[in-house]
Amino acid sequence: MPPSGGGPDRPEIITPGAWIRFPGTGPLVLATMGSRFVARLVDAAILVIPAGAGFVGLLLAVVVHQPRLWWTLLLIAPATLIVWFGYEGLSIGLCGATVGKTVAGLRVVTARSAAAQRGGPGVGAGMARAAMLLLPGLVPCLGGFITVLVSVSPFFDEFARQGWPDKAAGTYVVSTKPVHY
Question: Model pTM?
Answer without folding.
Answer: 0.84
